[in-house]
Amino acid sequence: MSLRVRMVVLAVGLLGLAAMLVAAFRKLPGFGGSWHPYGQRAVETALGRHTSNVIASINFDQRAFDTMGEQAILFGAVLGTVVILRTTRDERRVEPEPARVPAPLRRYALAVLPVTLLTGLYVVAHGQVSPGGGFQGGVVAATALHLLYIAVDYRALQRVRSVPLFTLADAAGEAGYPLLGLGVLMTGASFLENVLPYGTLGTLSSGGTVPVLNAAIGLEVAAAVVVLLAQFLDQAIVIESEDGEQGAGSVGDGDGRRGEGGAA
Amino acid sequence: MTAAQLLPVLVAGPLLGAAVLVATGRWLPRYVADVFGAVVAGAASALALGVLVATAHRPAAVEWVGGWRPRHGTGVGIVLVGDGIGLGLAAVVSVLVVTVLVYSWRFFDDPPPHQAGAFPALILAFQAAMCGFTLTGDLFNAFVFFELMGVVAYALTGYRVDEARAVQGALTFGFLNSLGGYSLLLGVGLLYAHTGELGLAQLGAHLDAAPDGSGTLVKAAFVLVATGFLVKAAAVPFHFWLPDAHTVAPTPVCMLLSGAMVQLGVYGVARLYWTVFAGSGALPEAAVHRALLALGVLTAVTGALLCWLQRHVKRLLAFSTIAHTGLFLVTLAVLTPEAVAGTALYVLGHAGIKAALFACAGILVDRFGNVDEQELHGRGVRLRPVGVLFTVGGLALAGLPPFGTGLGKALSEEAAGGWLTVLFVAVSAATGGAVLRVAGGVFFGLGSPPAEEDRPHAAGRHRAGGEEQHEDAETTGADEPEETRERVTRAPDTMVVAAAALLAAGLAVGCVPPLWSAVSRAADSFTDHSGYAMAVLYSTGQHLTHSPAPHWSPAGVTLGLLSTVLAACGAWAALRTVPSGVRPRWSLPLRRLHSGHVGDYVACVVAGLTLLAALVW
Amino acid sequence: MSILPYLVAGWLFLAGCYGLATSRNLIHAVGSLAVCQASTYVLLLAVGYRRGGTAPVFSDIRPGSRPVVDPVVQALTLTDVVVGATLTALLLALVVQVSKRHGTVDPDELRELRG
């Protein structure tokens, strides 16, 4: 349809939708009210299971089945990206070129790397106690690894980032959820039932199965982010079409070979 | 261990299988990965069927994941409900996945490097998502599986990345379905704010007790959530992703999308209505009836017209799926247990028949690298067994007794009644006729071959200049890349066997009376609003008076034969008289509406939201 | 005005839809979709807010000493964020391939799959 027709259709749709949303919002309970029945129950339940981070208790215990679906989405999306960004028949892989990095940048990135990694692991490990958890910490830990790319070059990152190994870790993290669930099922309890001792509120070993599932998620997220970024970085740096054109170079200006941008 | 406790395994098992395939994909030979995938899917199917049989005459299996059983009707957990319709759909999905994995043993020459298991792994994750969606009794959990279904399906649709059209179709699919998902989530947010609950049964119980005056909010929430499901169901005007995705997706993926996933959207609307909204005075039954009927008629007519106008065989089948979705919605709009039973049997039969038709189309792709009706004219003569299967599929699609599609159609006509009978006959005849036209031309060389200048040449008309394209919006099926290692010289046995088995399954649905009474019982409890809440929240079963089991009526048989004859006559007339490639001018606006432009499609979805709201208000 | 936060959520959804429908660049379209999704975050968190409430984490406050905001919507939002991030990655991967195969990321120039 022509642009004019599309805009008319869109305008009708947006106006109608706006009217419906405003009408609905006027009937919602006022912002900031104190009536949260499910939330209240969730808090009491979390404390009953000695999990001081209520959100972790919801994600990994009370509504753990949601999180199983959620981590499957992450797993599926990463697998999908691996499939979609694979090297096709009319493409080849080239060796990335070494890059020169300004010394201050190099020093800073290398100094921050271990700190970032440790922060990530800390956030994963304390998911049941304080804000954070496997999702957040996993992303931080995966970011740490990529500081190598900033500090040195893509070849350095490639050396420590074994994609097969991280794929294996991704799959192992993904399998953690169903495996634990099925294991619990074998004992006669319900799938994903929290059968471990609840421990002491506020300590690392509190929450029963919460830290276990949290760790599985941390492993999966960290590995998945590494594999995911590897696909995009490979597109920008390693994969060329047979006639020598850079794979994704035409998408945007920022995707050029890093050696050119970083060597200034 | 009880049968109910095994319900989560239907989701966890395939996910675990997918993880194993990805972990070992580096070392596994291709065929081991394929066999492993089929075994895992087969085990899940056996489990689903086992639980279904074990609980056939008992109250639905209800499992609170993690043992979070509610006290006094309130809880914090997520519930899985294996009632007849939900668990039955999970079983159908699982069996279809096994067939698809067997069918695709000869598929795809270039799995991603070191990922031999990527395709079966994605299919297993898709299976887990669909089973989770059918079993869950929690609205937010349904959103999670809705998104998982989506993410995996986009990747599968774009699987053949060296194909320009494949990535475009997958992207359109992704945009529209994600937008639908966010609409769904906005609706979940509204319902949560209003009721403070997420479980379907709890939401329903709360709305039942809610005071008047919240009608606006409840209606808006219904519109937003239902829009998400209707995008998945490909109801017009939310349907634009479906033809594009089916045109480009690998054939096994089309079988799953058209055979199962689209119908889950319809299931979602029905489940949502009966568990959450059916007891609420805020959303009158008449409003839901009006909305489903209007959208259903629109969907059925649009789908049937465009189906008839296609020459790309997979696209033609895609539009026939849209037409049938419309019929499902029209039947559902009656909002009675009989209507649900009719729809369920129709969906069952349709799953087998439509998947079989796609399987036959896939054989054409592999044999000729082409699925263009005009280009292939007369070239399929040597694939006689496939031609016979394709013809039988066309007849079944038109509603020929005793196929399951025929029974579903007959029961739906009975439930809907009145002038809608004409719609059922016409739409079945048009979609079946289009398939028969292809069968006659391609496999039996009937009619006159297209004039030489009409044939799009090797370069493909879709790559020719924009002007001609603008005049006559169409997608040809030329230049379809083969999906097998090399072009096959004869139809591979696994493919033919899979297609035949699917047709046989579609036939069986219409011939096995015990299945009909089981579906009827399932439909009775599916439409029992308070019974669902009692079973889920208080584990108490209510005794239902069952409606009589459905059966073939003389009128149904007659109308089925009528639509089949009409389909055959239409196909014959088309092959005889209409010069190939010329389409009526009146169809141009309708075809131009399908512009392949994601902006147009999003505008239509947003307008569709408003249309749905107007219908419900 | 006690419905303002909800209106923000509604506005974001409409703005995202407008961006998607009028986009001239597929990367921008993926961004617009993320805006639509942001509206769901805002709505969920607004729904769960409680005046004077703090984070529902009891590592440094005594249970019962202060009201906390609704933890359920926070958990839902976390799920939603993960869904959004992974979906964005997958769609961007498809955009990369569209760019390679079609030589453009302008939806107006993708002229296949019609009729």
UniProtKB/TrEMBL annotation, chain A:
Membrane-topology descriptor: Multi-pass membrane protein
Residues of the Na+/H+ antiporter MnhB subunit-related protein domain: 105-226
Sections of the chain in a coiled coil: none
Bilayer-spanning residue ranges: 71-88, 108-129, 135-154, 175-192, 212-233
Basic and acidic residues compositional bias, start-end: 254-264
Assigned keywords, A-Z: Cell membrane, Membrane, Transmembrane, Transmembrane helix
Domain of life according to the entry: Bacteria
Any one cellular-component term (Gene Ontology): plasma membrane
Start and end residues of each stretch annotated as Disordered: 244-264
Localization per record: Cell membrane
Family membership: Belongs to the CPA3 antiporters (TC 2.A.63) subunit B family.
Name listed for the protein in its UniProt record: Sodium:proton antiporter
UniProtKB/TrEMBL annotation, chain B:
Top-rank taxon: Bacteria
GO aspect biological process, one term: ATP synthesis coupled electron transport
Entry keyword annotation includes Membrane: yes
Subcellular location(s) of the protein: Cell membrane; Membrane
One Pfam family cited in the UniProt record for this chain: Proton_antipo_M
Transmembrane parts of this sequence: 6-28, 35-56, 76-105, 142-159, 171-193, 220-242, 254-274, 286-309, 316-337, 343-365, 386-404, 416-436, 495-516, 557-578, 598-616
Gene Ontology CC terms: plasma membrane
Name the record gives this protein: NADH:quinone oxidoreductase/Mrp antiporter transmembrane domain-containing protein
Lineage, highest ranks first: Bacteria, Bacillati, Actinomycetota, Actinomycetes, Kitasatosporales
TrEMBL record, chain C:
Matching InterPro entries: CPA3_antiporter_subunitC, NUOK/Mnh_C1-like
Transmembrane segments: 29-49
Locations listed in the record: Cell membrane
GO cellular component: plasma membrane
Keywords: Cell membrane, Membrane, Transmembrane, Transmembrane helix
Membrane topology according to the record: Multi-pass membrane protein
UniProt xrefs under Gene3D superfamilies: 1.10.287.3510
Recorded family membership: Belongs to the CPA3 antiporters (TC 2.A.63) subunit C family.
Protein name listed in UniProt: Dehydrogenase
Biological source species: Streptomyces reniochalinae
